[in-house]
Amino acid sequence: MRYRHRILRRTRIFGNVPYGVDISHCSVKGKVALTFDDGPYLYTTELLDLLKSNNVRATFFVVGNNGGKGHINDPSSGYGPIIRRMIADGHQVASHTWSHQDLNAATAEQRRAQIINNEIALNSILGVIPTYFRPPNTRCGPDCYNDLKSFGYHVVNYDIDTRDWQDSGVNAKSIYQTILSQHSPASSQWISLAHDVQPYTVHQFAKFMIDTARGLGYDLVTVGDCLGDPPVNWYRDPVTGQARDARGASVHLIQPELESANNNNTRDERGETERCCNVDASGGRELWARAHE
Ligand SMILES: [Zn+2]
């Protein structure tokens, strides 16, 4: 038994931010976009509390299943409510693959499964699919960029690598502060990389990043905001492919549907051919069953 992920008109694009090309820099001066990769994890709720108490909006590049944390859309994992809180608190949720596989080392089928499995998981939690994506370790060759373009993704890199994961973040503060202080908010803007799976980042570095940026006169915003892209463009409806504001979306808008193993293409109620994706890599086959036990 397998299931299909109903994806219609995935080539539908909207907004002014390019799709399927490297985006390493913000376009709005005076902005710093704090990004947190690889979560949610044990410390993410604490980070959300910190961001809220400091009135900061950030961007989370979410991984569906890595580091032994369990599937984000398995109700027993507890991660679904954390991801929904990200939306409720005004943060941006983006995809960072299903299980953090190197997309350059992956086969084409594995790469697409990494994209689609996380869409299934995030859609079952939020009722929408993100339009922003960061490849693990930002490794993405021409085939990978082509895939991400065809799936309708903005591919976000960064221009401040804080290296918060290295040696317990010993150099992170100095890397971040040096870059910001050597430039002016009147003439620069930044996308900063950190990780909410790192306790140092949540317990020490995040507050430092907030205070340092603000002390130098920068505004802290999401990646979408720093690219001048309105929130409605940060997500798409999984059925129509159109822009859809996550804050108004219904959870469990659409479920993966079980189908016979030899029926790969079906027609929807409008008689249009769907792209159906058989997802069976990286544990995807058990995803539905686990999420809907
Ligand atoms: Zn990562």
TrEMBL record:
Residues 30-221 form the NodB homology domain. InterPro entries: Glyco_hydro/deAcase_b/a-brl, NODB_dom. Gene3D superfamilies: Glycoside hydrolase/deacetylase. Keywords: Carbohydrate metabolism, Cobalt, Hydrolase, Metal-binding, Signal. It comes from the Eukaryota. Its cofactor is Co(2+). One of its GO terms (molecular function) is hydrolase activity, acting on carbon-nitrogen (but not peptide) bonds. One of its GO terms (biological process) is carbohydrate metabolic process. This is NodB homology domain-containing protein. The lineage of its organism: Eukaryota, Fungi, Dikarya, Ascomycota, Pezizomycotina.
